[in-house]
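BUG: 3D viewer hangs when loading the predicted structure for this chain

Environment: internal workstation, default settings.
Expected: structure renders.
Actual: progress bar stalls at 90%.

Input used:
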Amino acid sequence: MRSSFKLTRIFDIDIRVHITFLLFLLFFFVTSGPNGVVLILGIFVCVTIHELCHSLAAMHFGIKVKKIMLLPIGGVASMSDEPGKPFQELVISLAGPMSNILILLIFYLPLRMLLGNDTLMYPLLAMTGKARFAGGFSVIAYIYWLNLVLAAFNMLPAFPMDGGRVLRALLSYRMSRRKATNIAVRLGHVFALFFAYIGIVHGNIFLLIIAVFVYTAASNEGLQVNVSETIRGYTIKDILPDDFISVSPETHLGQVLEFVLHSHQEDFPVMESGHLVGFLTKKDFIRGLHVKNSEAGVSEIMRTDIPAIRVNTPLHEVRKLMQLHGTGAMPVIAGDKVIGMITAGDIDRVYITANDLTEGI
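Structure tokens produced before the viewer hung:
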């Protein structure tokens, strides 16, 4: 079962929705009725606009964006690379929150005329206890003002929020990217612990979920940057294994299983007449054995969207390509000839060894 489904495609970017979003809609329908569903759908439209603005800013600087994943806790744009300069990261990070502010500015007068001042201001006045009855259209007012919440929350100066990236961009003018990232990560941990404390004191499970997400995402961001900086300077050529096994499109999955059991290789370049025609990943191979059978051919399940990479490609770029294409291995070429394959495990070993050497272990 797929964990997400494609909703639409905008500016050559796939907009995908995680399956848990449907459970989120069901929860709000049960607890708040149709208005709850309208509220969540409205918020996710705003979140989509937010992520699209990030993506368009990234594309302006030549960074490819493959998809935007909408989750119950927000959206994530899958970019092929990190911004190369602090200014680029600053612009990309600010684009999202600024889109929410722009929505507030553009729709304030039209909504005030359409809904009336009492209904439009109802969400704000309700917090002070001075709100009047707003009628059935108050949900539109909530969607409108939640743009302010989205902008404010995302501008908190800590990872993984946009404000953390803004902070890193500004700090990167004065210090290394790794040090700037570590500062933003620590602030992310502080905010996560604060959210957890408030959630426990007030019995707010949603705040606890946000706290876990913020802490985990901040830690992951710190790790990703640490790995990229540690392996910077190494290329595929430095670690490429001497031998590898390739298969043909006609190879049966049963034969591939034999290769897996009798070697350390789990992913395979697919060759025909000396040319690369596809790539068989471990994930697709396992799924193929379950869905089809051992007599099925590799051509039925191989992937053709995983590009071959050149032997002089830096390892930190290989990691980004693997993440972009959703694979843990890629074929390696020198000229037009396939000379091997590189796996995420190979890169991890370089990181662990280089990290140990740096720390003197």
